[in-house]
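Q: For a teaching handout, I want to show students what a protein-ligand complex looks like in token form. Below are the inputs, and the small molecule is aspartic acid. Please produce the holo structure.
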Amino acid sequence: MQRLVMKFGGTSVADGERIKNVAKIVERFRAKETVVVVSALANVTDSLLNFAKKVKTHVEEEEIKSFVDELKERHRYACEIAVNEEFRSPILLEIEKLCNDLEKVLTGISYIGELTKRSLDYVLSFGERLSAPILSGALKSIGIDSIWLSGGEAGIVTDSNFGRANVIWEKTEKLVREKLLPLLKDKVPVVTGFIAVDERGRITTLGRGGSDYTASIIGACIDADEIWMFKETEGIMTCDPRIVKNAKPIEVLSYIEAMELAYFGAKVLHPKTIEPAIAKNIPVRVKNTFNPNSKGTLIVSETKKTNGVVKAISVMKNVSLINISGAGMISEVGVASRVFNALASANVNVLMISQGSSEANISIVVSREDADKAVDSLKKEFKDEKIVKTIECNNNVAIIAVVGAGMRGTKGVAARVFRAVADAGVNVLMIAQGSSEVNISFVVLEEDADKAVIALHDEFLS
Ligand code: ASP
Ligand code: MG
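A: Here is the structure, written as tokens, with aspartic acid included.
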């Protein structure tokens, strides 16, 4: 293979030993030209996030210091394990410098008592900025020349939508090529996942789990032959193995199937990961760090209808079902548009929509953290009017999505889905099927979700 992007998530680089192991994987599987993308060490992003929120309400300087010291120790220790002595000092220096900066930023936040999205992105960026130098040093230690770069240094430029920034493609493509291609001749660059810069050079993030996205952005920019995502599972599974014991890895998925699965909560890939790969038709492979020889899941543009029509079943918990109803809605033009405008202005992302043809109600599903905002915005929009009578919100629900491109044009899949669910004694609250027919999704009470999923997996995938 000529050109490969390899991405390693937090669990893959949890500590010094694991980082060493990642270096060996790179050594074994690398192509003529390879870029490595790395996440923060396991749980670092979460702890930065939680601590930043806590600091906002003011904490003592001592506490900030001990938080940063602990983080520093963890990275120094990983460095000592993973990196040979001769390469350590610039890395330890970098860790020292980053931790000093972090302490200052956290102290600042604590004094001002304000945590903006921009400063939060800055705080979160330390996770990846601390991990990349260590992995780069681990590669050098086994004789692979390497250099570390932040997402911004690698050329990824976004808008200023902190927390979930959008890539500015023309700029990014040009810059990434300019910066990375010359390095690839004799080095394996290690790029921080998840973070980038806006056009003014301020650090942004691509949304939680965004390192996958970084890998595919880079892959698309440099026209990689493949993009490999190393995870701690055997690829993408037919279902969450914690719910269904005989869940198994899926060999081949199409881009669209993988996107549906990522979107509907199979937390294997960041939902935007596939888009850049599609644009350049680059195969994406999801592989297991702990078993790198196994094939994992290959994601490509088209797949034949493999045995059976359904590829996977995913569950999304932590969602809320909102029902908007009233006889006045019948034949009233513009109600739906007002609903979605109100939600959009409140910055609420809608996960599922359905409207019965009686038009007397519209049901939507949003993530639970958005539910209050959503209900408030709808109540405000329809106050003192006769059109909408009630707005009800049920927080105790889950979305189940049945995904498979083979469902397209196959008769009777929906019937089998709902018979299996009914036989399991589960009541369905809402249904939607996109006209792509790649996905049937429906809503059940959260306590019924596992039962329904097990029944569906038995019906289609066992
Ligand atoms: N470290 C970031 C996060 O935990 C990005 C990633 O892991 O992909 O969200
Ligand atoms: Mg992570």
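A: Two things your students might notice: The first helix runs from residue 16 to 29. The pocket of magnesium ion (ligand 2) is lined by residues 9-10, 39, 45 (CB under 6 Å).
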